[in-house]
Write a structure and sequence with these properties.
heterodimer; A: 257 residues; alpha/beta; TIM Barrel; eight-stranded parallel beta sheet; 8 strands; 40% helix; B: 275 residues; 11 helices; 16% strand; globular
Chain lengths: 257, 275
């Protein structure tokens, strides 16, 4: 089955969202052939993990279990780890999401060690927003892939995912270097990272078994990244891994028939 | 909704069939070197055309990077030479030239445009921010009037101007087709002013390669009409598959998808007044 491993539920006020409900999202995913979504509620990013819990559980129920959850971890909140421990004890929570830019905290900040320790103890993957140095969005530099090096070395058993794969070509070199150095590092394809040849380059450098199909719903349209994956020229076995096999393995999601 | 393992071969075949059926005209592709060595670039027009044809694109409007980063008139000359020499490229090509305010062009804007039109130019680009001039009548009025007289479409990047400047441009030149190029920054961050401007100005269009907001093209086309969107790939930096998929797989009637893929551009081309 196709798994979109980087999505969100809920809205943010800064622009108009076209999908305003779980049913809108599921209908579009049905048309695109996407079965399972891994989502972090926007409220988790804004106010901390408790804020999105109720809506996330409703989304899980309404979707018949197709929408699984990341719990957001905000290093500035002292109870992030204890809330996360409770949430990760049962579905729909299957992973942890951190966002150095959103939380104005550099990736190497020691407080993120609590998120890695939580991922280790709960046996779940940890995904972070990652990006490159952006001239028009300087805070993105807080999330450069190489800035996670200390945590990744300290927690080799944690399945760590570079969200957005470093943010496109400008962050790809750093993402590839991290993936080549550390076998527990993966990359997802979420975001408007549609540079020509990027997926093939990532797969050839780090292996297709380390890449996760992802879109960033409801920000971005999964059909765009789906087109890039299908047109990447990679063999079908590699595409099956990228489209869902890897996510099922890493998140321990049972695969359908 | 199936839980079965995906069948990439079938999915790829269906995607290619959907693309082929629409006969895409790409109005946003670039030839020439890029100053950032990390950026994919294509210095050979035949190679760019071959890559576009492989992706399923049938026609292409190409611009030259030298127009942006070096000498616009020299870039236009290189481009027009390359387009003229491109017979047998596998797809039909025409030129998207770059203009400056009058005074820097050889002769008047009108004579320069007519010479370029005669050599295959069908689109004009302005780069007000990069080339440091305001998109205002007191600076560009002569060029804008010459474009409007010829109904020659003008493409401007949203990062090259402001929404208020675009509003004034569309209002002052109602017979000039103005196309927003969404390159460089997420266009959907600005989807509120984009929709308001589309509603206000029937001569405003949006090029599609950065219309990648979730369901953005589908819903916006339903609200303001599919006639306001023109397919662009953003090649060679962008993978054309992203923009192709957003149109080919859009949840829109066949006629709307065909209009975005090629029909709207053809209609604009029928209205161009060549010398």
């Amino acid at each position: 089955m196709i798994v979109d491993s980087h999505t969100h539920i809920g809205l943010m006020a800064s622009f108009r969202y076209e999908a305003r409900s779980v049913s809108d999202i599921l209908a579009a995913c049905d048309r695109a052939g996407i079965h399972t979504l891994l989502a972090c509620h926007h409220l988790d990013l804004v106010y901390g993990p408790r804020a999105g819990e109720e809506a996330m559980r409703r989304a899980y129920e309404e979707s018949g279990g197709r929408i699984l959850a990341y719990c957001g971890f905000d290093p500035r909140l002292p109870d992030s780890a204890s809330v996360g421990e409770r949430l990760l004890s049962a579905p729909p929570y299957v992973g942890i999401k951190i966002h150095p830019v959103f939380h104005a905290t550099p990736a190497e900040d020691p407080r993120y060690a609590d998120a890695f320790a939580l991922a280790r103890d709960a046996g779940v993957p940890l995904m972070s927003h990652t990006w490159y140095r952006s001239a028009y969005n300087p805070p993105q530099a807080l999330s450069l892939p190489e800035r996670f090096r200390g945590h990744v070395e300290r927690f080799p058993e944690v399945r760590f995912i570079l969200g957005h794969g470093g943010g496109g070509l400008d962050g790809l070199g750093s993402a590839i270097e991290m993936m080549r150095t550390y076998p527990n590092v993966h990359a997802d394809l979420a975001g408007d990272v549609y540079e020509r040849g990027m997926i093939r380059r990532l797969a050839e450098a780090a292996g297709p078994e380390r890449i996760l199909f992802a879109s960033d719903i409801p920000w971005l349209d999964p059909r765009a990244q789906l087109g890039c994956v299908l047109a990447s020229g990679l063999p079908d076995d590699a595409l099956r891994l990228i489209l869902g096999g890897n996510a099922c393995r890493i998140f321990r999601i049972p695969q359908g028939a | 909704m199936t839980e079965a393992s995906p069948d990439p071969a079938r999915m790829r075949r269906e995607f290619q069939t959907a693309v082929a059926a629409l006969g895409f005209v790409d109005i946003n592709a670039w030839v020439g070197s890029h100053p950032d060595p990390l950026r994919p670039a294509e210095t050979s027009l035949p190679a760019l055309a071959a890559a576009a044809a492989d992706a399923g694109i049938r026609e292409m409007v190409v611009s030259h990077t030298e127009c942006v980063f070096a000498d616009p008139c020299e870039g236009n000359a290189l481009l027009l030479d390359a387009v003229e020499a491109s017979g047998g490229a596998g797809i039909s090509l025409c030129a998207g030239i770059c203009l400056l305010p009058e005074g820097e062009l050889p002769g008047s804007a009108g004579t320069y445009l007519d010479a370029c039109l005669a050599r295959g130019a069908r689109l004009v680009r302005l780069f007000p921010k990069s080339h440091r001039f305001p998109l205002a009548e007191w600076c560009c009025g002569g060029v804008l009037a010459a474009l409007e007289e010829r109904r020659l479409p003008l493409m401007v990047g949203h990062v090259e101007t402001s929404w208020s400047e675009l509003h004034a441009l569309c209002e002052r030149h109602p017979d000039l087709p103005v196309i927003i190029d969404g390159a460089e920054q997420k266009l959907f961050y600005h989807n509120r002013p984009v929709e308001a401007l589309l509603r206000a100005h029937p001569n405003l269009y949006v090029e599609s390669h950065n219309l990648v907001h979730f369901l953005g093209l589908d819903h916006l086309a339903r609200r303001v009409g599919a006639g306001r969107f023109l397919f662009g790939s953003g090649m060679p930096q962008r993978d054309p598959a992203a923009a192709l998929a957003c149109v080919a797989l859009a949840d829109l009637p066949d006629a709307d998808r065909a209009a975005i893929a090629r029909g709207n551009w053809r209609r604009l081309m029928e209205e161009v007044r060549t010398p």
